[in-house]
TrEMBL record:
GO terms for molecular function: phospholipid transporter activity. This is ABC transporter permease. Pfam families: MlaE (PF02405). GO terms for cellular component: ATP-binding cassette (ABC) transporter complex. InterPro entries: Permease_MalE. The chain crosses the membrane at residues 40-61, 68-85, 91-110, 131-150, 156-180, 192-211, 223-246. It comes from the Eukaryota. Keywords: Chloroplast, Membrane, Plastid, Transmembrane, Transmembrane helix.
Amino acid sequence: MKTEFLNRVKLCFRISSYLLNIGTIRFLDYENLSNSLKSAGLDVLFINMVTSFFISLVLSLQIVKEFLYLNAVQLVSSMLAISFIRELSPVLTAIITIGKVGSLFTSELGTMVITEQIDSLFILGISPIRYLIYPRVLALILALPLLNLFSLCTSLISSSFICFFLYQISPNFFFMNLWYDNILFDLVKSSLKALIFGFCVSIISCVWGITTSGGSRGVGLSTTSSVVTSLLLVFILNFFLSYFLFDNLSSSFSAL
């Protein structure tokens, strides 16, 4: 098991170095890219927005009353925005994507390995990396930052909703006080974080899929392993990305 995991990690680095070569774009299969974008984007959008809506309701329910108690109502929206932009939206989007898209990619490729479809591609002289993996990786890299922005917008609308109906904070007041210093830079950094998550999740999902063995049971084991590994990597990466991207916290409210 340990050897299998290490071999998969090595393969992840090898495929990553190959895909990061700009010349690889010439071999992109656009039909597969279109199908992968639908799976990684449109098929995830609804559940991503619904989850973001209710998570932000719960967070606002707990946070807003404490700020009202401290008589800091003008900081409510900006504090929620910081939480959503820097942490909740990219991480939550990545988690949902792992559960729905990452598991799909692993099971698809794993089934293709078990049914010897990958071997057929080799016989036809088609590279599985170019034909199957590259479109899926690129699809998640493109889709995750966009899903992150949809999640952010949904969360802010949800928060303004609960602030208005439970705490009588008008939407106009909420959004007027939403902006804080460096919010635009934070949006760019949040999108970068989502992009990195998308790359890592897609690579793990695809590698775990093409290294599947052991029949239908092996497909299930590979899918479970890829989901668990992706989740752990996202949580670990999130700490380091947050530390290096959002380390300067003192200036967040300087313009308020």
